[in-house]
Amino acid sequence: HYLAKRAEVFDPEKASHIVKGSPSIGSDTVYFSIVDDYGNACSFIAAVPKDCGFSLQCRGSGFVLQEGHPNCVAPSKRPYHTIIPSLATKHDELWVCFGVMGGDMQPQGHVQVILNLLEFGFNPQMALDAPRIRLAPGDDEADGQSYYVCVEEAMDENVVNKLGELGHRVKVITGWERSMFGRGQVVQLIKDKKGGRLWAAGSDCRGDGCALGW
């Protein structure tokens, strides 16, 4: 129901008007993905932002007081936050244990990684290494837009040009600045034709993680 409502406001022919929020860019998060032989898994993400002295849940203050805002504080309502470790199942068993760090890039990164695995058939490392896009806050609103569509330098030039034609302000991001596209880890169940099982893993090239098996 929620996805259907969101789809109604999407226009594939032109850029949408997006109300500016208050995302921040930082490096205060860690993520790891662990799976054993039996399929028991832990998808773990935690962040300790500056000035916060606790590590259990640091996003309880992620609300606004502006009445009518989608994230306005209210009873029986959870504040928006990006502590979103993920597990995906297929045929009633674990299929992939994954997560992407990066503040407001997390949900955007999750969608792109899972699409790479599910729709394009990439292996875990390919799914993480593929160029990403990010909807990022603009530095001014002089021209009436409050965001940029940032794309990694490896993105197909035709895709970049098409985004511009649709009315988006596009920035091509290069070098170390590519860290803004998040850092992820993936462990995926692979089955052969005889029913054999193995776990394939990947670690994001944008960070300092690694994939290990033992």
Automatic annotation (TrEMBL):
Pfam families: G_glu_transpept. This is 131_t:CDS:1. It comes from the Eukaryota.
